[in-house]
Amino acid sequence: MKENTRENLVRRDIWIRALYMLLFAIVYSVAEAIIVLLAIFQFVALLITGQVNELLLRFGKNLSVFMFDILEFQTFNSEIKPFPFSPWPDEEHGGEWLEERDVQSNTEPEVGDDSPDQTDGEGAEKKDQ
């Protein structure tokens, strides 16, 4: 068993992987800081304009997929090295909650809406409460 351990300690491919893991640990830390800045910017954009930046929404999705790829490599769940050794992720953004919120806000009647089911006029029904 000691001979097997000794062989593993001198295997070049294991040490090269260790260097890649160190490199990707540093890259992951930088990407994490970028995600925090991106989240803050998107929140401020939402407060000011009422909507998020679509380009940054897609970049955020791709950056999080890239970070997931790094974690897969770091935890030995994948032998595929992330970008720049493989293509940059190109995913559609998630942002569904914004779309759902917009749809809900467009379908809810506004206060003072004079739709026929809420009027008291002759021949019109009043909504039960």
Brief descriptors of the model:
129 residues; 0% strand; 61% helix; mainly alpha
Would you give an account of this structure?
The chain is an all-alpha fold. It has one domain. It contains four helices and no strands. The longest helix is centred in the first third of the chain and has 38 residues, at 12-49. The mean pLDDT is 80.
Question: What would a concise description of this structure say?
Answer:
The protein has 129 residues and is mainly alpha-helical.
Summarize the topology:
Layout: H1 2-9, H2 12-49, H3 54-74, H4 96-107
Helix pairs in contact: 2-3
Uncertain runs are none
Structural class of the secondary structure composition?
mainly alpha
Integer average pLDDT: 80
Order of helices and strands: HHHH
Separation, N- and C-terminal Cα atoms? 80 Å
Count of individual beta strands: 0
- What proportion of the residues form beta strands (DSSP E)? under 5%
Total count of domains: 1
| Helical run tally | 4
Structural Rg: 27 Å
Question: Sheet with the most strands?
Answer: none
Helix percent reads 55-70%
